[in-house]
Amino acid sequence: MAKNSALIDPRLPRGFVDFEPADLAAVEEMVAKIRHVYERYGFDPIQTPFFEYTETLGKFLPDTDRPNAGVFSVQDDDEQWMSLRYDLTAPLARYFAQNYQDLPKPFRSYRQGWVFRNEKPGPGRFRQFMQFDADTVGAGGPESDAEMCMMMADTMDALGLAGKYVVRVNNRKVLDGVMQAIGVTDEAQKLTVLRAIDKLDKFGPEGVRLLLGEGRKDESGDYTEGAKLNVDQADAIIEMMSAARLDDLVDLEAEAGPDGFLDAEFKTPALAKFKITQAFAEGFAELQSMATLFTSAGYGPDRIKIDPSVVRGLEYYTGPVFEIELTFKVQNEKGQDVVFGSVGGGGRYDGLVSRFRNEHTPATGFSIGVSRLASALKLTGNLNAAPVTGPVVVTVMEKDRIADYQTMVADLRTAGVRAELFLGSSKNMGKQMKYADKRNAPAVIIQGSDEREQGIVQIKDLAVGAEAAASITDNAAWKTERPGQYSVPRDEMVNFVKAIPAVAAWMKANG
User: Fold this and answer.
1) Three-state helix/strand/coil letters over 370-435
2) 303, 327 in Cβ contact below 8 A?
3) What is the pLDDT of residues 82-103, one digit of tens each?
4) What mean pLDDT do residues 131-145 have?
5) Which of 305, 226, 233 is nearest to 273 (CA)?
6) CATH architecture of 392-509
7) Is 60 exceeded by the pLDDT of residue 479?
8) What molecular function terms (GO) are annotated for this protein (predicted)?
């Protein structure tokens, strides 16, 4: 046979992955536990489409012929730009604004789904990944932010990660206040500073210092432009994010003067060169209120703690920000021990809904990176990615009796058993058994002419057979004993199959 030169190479685009049945089943089990916690807190599900108008996504407004910086975009038939959603928060803001009159306020919802980012892929960094969000829209006090942090902690506990995580909390007003104090007022420069701080876990203090200054070149030679801060400004930022506690930085007993600055001073050397701002004081007070709520609800600093280094990269946050950090160590690609790091986070975004409506609408929420969290659960043994129990396979011994075999399959399915008829072309029993093994079938059913005349079927419990195979070394003994194989009257077939442990376990798990 001549080679077909027109064959298409079966390959995936960079940054996308396929998912196997075992991985999907394990993630589904994990997601069910997350959903249970969210619903216990009173959140209800909604679902938004994969596509939104590009302008809905905010920061990706089309300023070129084709908006493609960060998002995947297409034009519909009336030349409106649409983009695959970048996260689940901007679509929620659109949904809330569009359905404002009919929704309760505050509006509490959760959403699970795929998001898409047109960015450079890398190890553990994909262009399509799943998020699981929870948000409260219409509640402005720090108690709603504190509740989000508590729910994050309870979710980690429910997933078996107690003692292996900490929810870290900061406030964008604190960060904005420090930048205002050191003279950083340009919005683009502020965003560059925030993104530099957000790289602390990845690059360390010295790497962040480079990003705060002229810029940083990575090992591949790629250069990232810096925030262009001077030495005093960079020292102040480094000092702030290195503090173990916010109240190590400042004594906030003084009141603000007419210029918005406080008479109190920063305690640390680099920050002491600058004045405290009103924004810093407001953020600090909100964090103090949240800390009181954590303590009163029984969440100690081993589970939730105030941390000045937390930033979150998205620019729409306006108040408290928080993230879940897993604290156990793993080995990186260089074989070095590193902390696993963040698997989710969020914060307050009071300005997002106001893009669609004139009134001020406070909102807060968080997002879990499902794929990254699944990787963490695998490492800790809390994610069961075992092969999915396959169907009971009814083999085909006589092609002219397909209807009889299909009746067996129908009887099993009616009784709630997962079952299928072998639909391949081979009558060879060895090949049909190999197929059943690849399907991870718990059992196979065999009925040839001899069994049909006797009114019986042969049922092979493949798990029992595999276990016996490990202890029987003599081939003749194997053929004589036929471990795990049973002759069963045809009218007792269904009840016998239902009693096979692997089948019974699947039925129990699937209702």
Assistant:
1) HHHHHHHHHHCCCCCCCCCCCCEEECCCCHHHHHHHHHHHHHHHHCCCCEEECCCCCCCHHHHHHH
2) no
3) 999 999 999 999 999 999 999 9
4) 94
5) 233
6) 3-Layer(aba) Sandwich (3.40)
7) no
8) ATP binding; histidine-tRNA ligase activity
